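U., I forgot to send this yesterday:
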Amino acid sequence: MLTAREQVKFLLLKEKMTITELAQELTKRTGREYTRQGISNKFSRGTLRYDEVTAIAEILGYEIDFKKIPFK
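Result:
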């Protein structure tokens, strides 16, 4: 299973967006200051909040969908 960092980096590549551009867009959408280094640090420390993850998904044109895991 991919980590959140790996998933976001994959989607950034797929959508041709840099972490710097992502930080700028997050700052615009949330009113909080985000930087490339700050986002990288959050990934490394595992401190990215759920609202930040959903904002990143929206910026990249995706939605998060929880699905029930069927019992075997």
